[in-house]
Amino acid sequence: MQKNTPPRSTIRLTRRGRLALVATGAVVAGTAVAVPLLSPERTEKEAPRKPATLVIPEGWRAGQIYQAVDKALALPAGTTRKALPKAALKLPEDAEGNPEGYLFPATYPLDKKPTPEALLASMVDTANKRFNRAPIAAGAQRNAMNVYQAVTIASLVQAEAATKADMGKVARVVFNRLERGMPLQMDSTINYAMNRSTVRTTERDTRIESPYNSYQRMGLPPTPIDNPGEEAMRAAIDPTPGDWLYFVTVKPGDTRFTANFQEHQRNVAEFNRNQRSPAPKATG
Length: 284
Hints:
The protein has about 280 residues and is mostly helical. The chain has nine helices and four strands, in the order E-H-H-E-H-H-H-H-H-H-E-E-H. Helix 4 packs parallel to helix 8, helix 5 packs across helix 6 and helix 6 crosses helix 8. The N terminus and C terminus are likely disordered.
């Protein structure tokens, strides 16, 4: 079992082939927020219907959620972000006022006069109810971490796992690397630092100055990097047994986990070849 991290110039832990998933943080992101729909009976004089609910998908970042709330409530852009200080959110002390990770993905009703503050508070209250109950809290303690650290790991799992079936394995890679004193070297943390979503991380990207640069800094990122769902949380407190240190989604449906760096290099080379290959033309 390899004890030392290979040179940063050669290693890529998570060059994922999730092209369909990374554009906005969720496959359903384009339709996630309940917005007015035109009905055949509607006339031009009728006012558009207000959405009855706001749907927050798993894995959205706080910035995406603020934009969704602005849109759902027909507010000027930036209104929800500015409302944070007035929302009196019940966040853990470790969060230092940053709600990332605690805006729980769910469907939220929009009452007659919803406000950004009320919606954000409802999301955080939901997260606290889900995260602080016995299974999650006990699972975090069993793994020698607090709930906030478990949420942070779950956010990595949510961002990195190509499928729900891979979540437990991704969580195990995180634990294995932390236990061996290896940097996490996850592209999702670079994406968060650069406010983007991509599967292409360059050597230059890995040298950016940021507390979220897990290529340069040891340990977990300072905060969660998205808002994970319950399955990612379960993976974070009960990871799949294994010795894996590396993984890469070579192509959709084919994620390969290994403890062998040379094998991982071969997998990454295959991923890169697939990225350079032209997409097949549609038929029919």
